[in-house]
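Q: Hi! New to this. If I give you a protein sequence and the SMILES for S-adenosylmethionine, can you show me the bound structure?
A: Yes, paste them in.
Q: Okay, here:
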Amino acid sequence: MKKNKISKDWINKRRRDIYVRQSKIEGYKSRAIYKLKEIDEKFKILKEVKSAVDLGAAPGSWSQYLVKKIRNGKIVSIDLLKFEPIKNTHQIIGDFTDEKYKKDIKNYFKDEIDIVVSDMAVNTTGNKNLDAIVTGELCLEAMKFALEILKKKRKICIKNIYGI
Ligand SMILES: C[S@@+](CC[C@H](N)C(=O)[O-])C[C@H]1O[C@@H](n2cnc3c(N)ncnc32)[C@H](O)[C@@H]1O
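A: Thanks. Here is the predicted structure of the protein with S-adenosylmethionine bound:
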């Protein structure tokens, strides 16, 4: 292995550890919180937001952050996996691409939804090309859904680890 590959791996691992430790100290369910926090601090995506949908919410750190930032608002957190409910959120366990759950989300918000955030990720196969395609499809689904339920000037924040 080349020297700069070793040091890159070392730096990445170390950085990961710092975020894991920090999330534990701050009481967040996972280190994923810091990505949303970074985006929010840079783009102020949660300014004046009163209602939010968190797609792929488990174990719940993005929802925890949303609760902190959206006072007296409405938040739906949905994931395929069961996870401990986050206080002041409405939890749905299910596949968000299933029409039934899309309807549940819409029904919960009788009025407008201000933002859709998505940190959804599929189980990786190890085949980077395949994983990138499947994850990309999930992102497109999230985008289509957001466009369907959001009114003009509302916001979408979708994370795609493969960057396509
Ligand atoms: C990286 S984790 C999310 C971490 C979360 N944002 C947090 O802060 O704790 C990705 C999640 O996406 C979920 N997911 C993947 N496909 C989904 C789908 N079709 N519907 C709902 N959740 C999905 C997975 O079950 C997984 O829990």
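A: Residues 43-158 form a domain with the Rossmann fold fold (CATH 3.40.50.150). Let me know if you'd like me to explain how to read the tokens.
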